[in-house]
Amino acid sequence: MAVYTDVAAEDLAQFLKGYDIGELLSYKGIAEGVENSNFLLHTSAGSFILTLYEKRVAVDDLPYFLSLMAHLAARGVHCPQPEKNRKGEVYSTLVGRPAAIINFLEGMWPRRPNVTHCAGVGEALARMHLAGRDFPLVRENPLSVAGWRPLFDRAAPRADEVQQGLRDFLARELAYLEANWPGSLPVGVIHADLFPDNVFFLGDKVSGLIDFPFACNDILAYDVAICLNAWCFEPDHSFNVTKARALLNAYGRARKLSEAEEAALPLLARGAALRFLLTRLVDFLNVPPGALVKPKDPLEYVRKLRFHQSVKSVGDYGIAHSGQMA
Questions:
Q1: How far apart are CA 32 and CA 178, in angstroms?
Q2: Range(s) within the chain of domains with CATH label 3.90.1200.10
Q3: Which of 43, 161, 232, 244 lies in disulfide reach of 22, CB 3.0 to 4.6 Å?
Q4: Does the pLDDT of residue 294 top 80, yes or no?
Q5: What letter does residue 83 receive in the DSSP assignment?
């Protein structure tokens, strides 16, 4: 979450007249994240999140995201729900941006994920994948392998300003992944951005998943690989195999990975690392002036990618070679 577009109090108050959620008492921007403009609203009816969709989110995709949250919630996956306005719409327009209001989800995201958190997110991800099996809408992933070269082309001219030799490093990895990306693994609805700040906990229990603007249809195990990158590295960027084993074991108890999925994890993890490296690099080099946003360090994902390149077998992620969880 972030704030790229400011919203004046009078504009917001007028906007809220179209909803039955009480009168505006206070609001503040949320600086975490990098994609959309988000605000915490307090009204006479309670607390809500206002999102203004920016950058990589197309208006035509909003029915997918917002319908998916309702679909998942109906199947026991805790996630926030969009509020309909008085016209029955789940999104409209505010200060020239597509905007939606969702209900407030109780809980906190873990600043220092532990093994229990990793197990919780593994189970929650598997249950989300299962709940999405009968979701009728389809959205291709614009940030899967076919979308990485345009990002590289945007970042490449200035990549070496961030780290000497980064351009060539990215070019080699991109070419390798384009040539070797798997095409026959199980696909379905994925979150595609399930970082710690998108998973809320009450104590040690997952209370909900949030922030679905990257959700799409893609390789299910790729979603697992994204989580390995997001949850299983320490602050010094060393890989914690105990956390990975907990995440994968918990995922497997709810939805068992096939042997083909397990074998593909190192490649999928490399792809996930490159995807976030490229988007972070593009964002790092193009922060709009005056935006209330904290660009994330792209070099974090250089270090993660180098780890995945060094992986000798799927056992390095805590999985036994027999195809059974370690």
A1: 32
A2: 115-317
A3: 43
A4: no
A5: P
Q: Do the strands 92-94 and 37-43 form a parallel or antiparallel pair, or are they unpaired?
A: unpaired
pTM, whole model, 2 decimals? 0.88
List the CATH code of the domain at 9-103.
3.30.200.20
Least confident of 96-100, 191-195, 290-294, 321-325: 321-325
Nearest C-alpha neighbor of 250 from the set 120, 113, 76, 129: 120
Query: What CATH topology corresponds to 115-317?
Result: Aminoglycoside 3'-phosphotransferase; Chain: A, domain 2 (3.90.1200)
Outline which parts of the chain fall under CATH 3.30.200.20. 9-103
24's tokens: 């505006």
Residue whose tokens read 């805790």: 78
320: pLDDT strictly greater than 50: yes
Nearest CA to 278 among 191, 159, 163? 159
Sign of the CA dihedral with 106 first, then 110, 116, and 120 last? positive
DSSP helix/strand/coil, 52 = strand
Supply 247's token pair. 């995440």
Q: How confident is the model at residue 33 (pLDDT cuts 50, 70, 90)?
A: low
Q: Per residue in 115-154, pLDDT tens?
A: 999 999 999 999 999 999 999 999 999 999 999 999 999 9
